[in-house]
Each structure stands twice: as C-alpha cells, then as structure tokens.
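[Structure tokenization] protein backbone as discrete codes

[Encoding] learned vocabulary of local backbone shapes

[Begin record] amino acids and matching fold tokens:

___
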Amino acid sequence: MSRAKGNIAEQKAKEFLLKQGFFVVEQNFYSKFGEIDIIAIKDEVLHFIEVKSGLDYESAVQNITPSKISRLVKTGYVYIKKNSLKLDFVYDAVIITPKKMQLLENITL
C-alpha cells in the first residue's frame, strides 16, 4: 500500500476510534523495530493499534503477519519504556474495507 493510501486509512481509523470513545495519544510512532500506526487510551488501557485496509476483510487481515505482530510488540515495549508508563496495554487492529470498519481487539492471542 502506498504511503498516501496508508495515511487515508489511518485517518479513517482515527475518526472511527474517536467515535468509539478512544483518546488518540500519538500516530506513527517509530522505533528501530517498526512503527505503530495509532496509540490510544480507552478506559485506562493503552491500545497499540495497527491499521490494515483491503478490498475485503480476508485480504486485510492476512496482512497482519506473525513478523508484523512481533515488530508491533517490540515497538510497544519501546514506547512504554521511553514514556515510563505503568498502564495496562493491548495490541489491536482496525480493519478497513470499502463496506465497513472493524476493531479487532488483542491480536496477540
């Protein structure tokens, strides 16, 4: 996916999350391990959120690979350590297709 399409998907995901009661703390956090698209808080839980879009649900979800999850987890730990946080946290994904958006919670299980 091009960076421009990624930016559009991330903006849609951000608006979706705000409507769901999330407070967006940061977007596009980078570490040497990778990037976290959106970092948000809801109900005193920190959410590290990967945004994936596709023509259909299956193609978008298939892009959340084990190596992508590993990089996401490592980058999350960098963020927590860098900011000296002591919050519960979870790794989620927002899946965007032409027909709908869906939050997948706790993708590391």
User: Anything to note?
Assistant: The chain has one domain: 3-104. The mean pLDDT is 93.
